[in-house]
Amino acid sequence: MKKYWPSIVMLVIFEIVAVTLWLTKDNLFYLFNFSYIGLSISFGGFLFIRKYKHARRVVQLLVGLYMLIYLGLICNENMQIEGFWYYLFTGVFEAATIHYAVAKIVGPLIFGRGWCGYACWTAMVLDFLPYKIPKTPRKKIGWIRYIVFAASLVFVAALFLAKVGNIERIMFWAFIVGNIIYYTVGVQAPTELNAPRGCARIRTGICLLKQTRIRRARLASES
């Protein structure tokens, strides 16, 4: 039983977040959202402990499809970084801001880069490609993430400054178009750039947020 404690602790953490947000925001969605994600990740941990070889794929599909299909396409939530900027500018604490706060800022302090391996909907698809390990040293393309990060901020800021109407609809289409580009580039990256999951590493600039928090956590642990 002791070996299952990590999965149980993971579930408890997500349930604490779920109940806290549900009660403070008076919105049942948060209880469902974080309970589902917590159960999915804990179930994956259980399968991993049981040495099921596709445990990580199961978690990727459970969480990735939930965020991509349900939150993104059905609920019209832009889960990319442009959605984060949009909700941040409007002062609304919604899906994208919660998503980034939990998965990309706070999460790496506790789970490292677990998000990339178990919950990213881009990596979910790219990991099914036959390219796993680079045959030659990877090309240095990390600088692209800075461009993507800045471009997303400028894009959303320009919409607000220009007082464009129906920005929420624009955010929805930006989510769709953005993912089409990510997946298209992601399929080409392993062969053209010798970078398996390269698009997942630079997409929407999330690595800037995560790696900054990871570096700080490492420095804190070493001091």
From TrEMBL:
Segments crossing the lipid bilayer: 7-24, 30-49, 61-79, 85-103, 115-131, 143-162
Alphabetic keyword roster: Membrane, Transmembrane, Transmembrane helix
Entry annotated with the keyword Magnesium: no
Keyword Signal: no
Protein name according to UniProt: 4Fe-4S binding domain-containing protein
